[in-house]
Amino acid sequence: MAAQIIDGKKLAQQIKAELREEVERLKRERGITPGLAVILVGDDPASRTYVRNKERACRDIGIFSQVHRLPAETSQEQLLELIEELNHTDHIHGVLVQLPLPEHIDERTVIQAIKPEKDVDGFHPVNVGNLHIGAPGFVPCTPRGIIEMLDRTGIPIKGKHAVVVGRSNIAGKPAAMLLLARHATVTICHSRTVDLAYHTRQADILVVAVGRPRFITGDMIKEGAVVIDVGVNRVDEGLVGDVDFDSCLEKASYITPVPGGVGRMTVVMLMKNTVEAVR
Ligand code: GUN
Q1: Which of 119, 121, 229, 242 is catalytic?
Q2: Mean pLDDT computed over every residue of the chain
Q3: What does the angle CA 119 – CA 32 – CA 69 come to, to the nearest 5 degrees?
Q4: Residue 25 lies in a domain
Q5: Residue 269 counted as domain residue
Q6: Whose CA is nearest to atom 8 of ligand 1?
Q7: Which of 87, 148, 149, 269 has the fewest Cβ atoms within 10 Å of its own Cβ atom?
Q8: Do 111 and 152 share a structural domain?
Q9: What is the CATH number of the domain that holds 176?
Q10: Is the minimum distance from the CB of 119 to ligand 1 under 6 angstroms?
Q11: pLDDT exceeding 70 applies to what percent of the chain?
């Protein structure tokens, strides 16, 4: 039987409606409007689109947003100065620097300059460390969105074998940590994994974040697996995920589409982190 498609758009709308109410309440009861500052350096087309989506989501929910669009030649010093200023701006609760940055700027230095309490991306080492030890802190938006999708679809995590393909700091690694925290047995695979299909076929929950179009095919998954596709790849036909949707659809029990899947959740989780930053 064909898998049930997890509708990221619908779930994101539900969560947006909840956030809208929460923002209203914050304004009414505490006189606070959550504020997000987004910094975009250079003019990478994909980054520009992502930033526009973030701006739009803020407007939609009632979050104050400001976007700092800086030229590609901006020096690291200038960027660090802006971050420092935003760290001390009271009405800005979340600060986000869109990645990737131009080559002359050191990403790690920039991320570390953001005050952990305003790091709504969850990329600062303090937040990464908190995630690893199970302490409260900001969790990266994409993996947080994945867990939210599973929970809201009623898919149990505890005791399941989750296989994560990809080990990026933005998606794969934090997704594995969150699944582990929810009592899944977790295997992390990557580009150098030998006999990848052997591992992916063990997965009750398969999370794919490798950045290769249609990389995971139907023969690589177990009958009844839950398949979560984090990939966004631009090919001639348009946007496709890291999962070969058609061949996996036949075998999976649940599957997320691209577009309209995990990506929709990422932006809304950023909004959730921003609202939580007020606390
Ligand atoms: N570039 C791609 N994904 C992300 C993200 O989640 N946050 C930031 N800051 N940059 C990104």
Answers
A1: 121
A2: 97
A3: 45
A4: no
A5: no
A6: 98
A7: 87
A8: no
A9: 3.40.50.720
A10: no
A11: 100
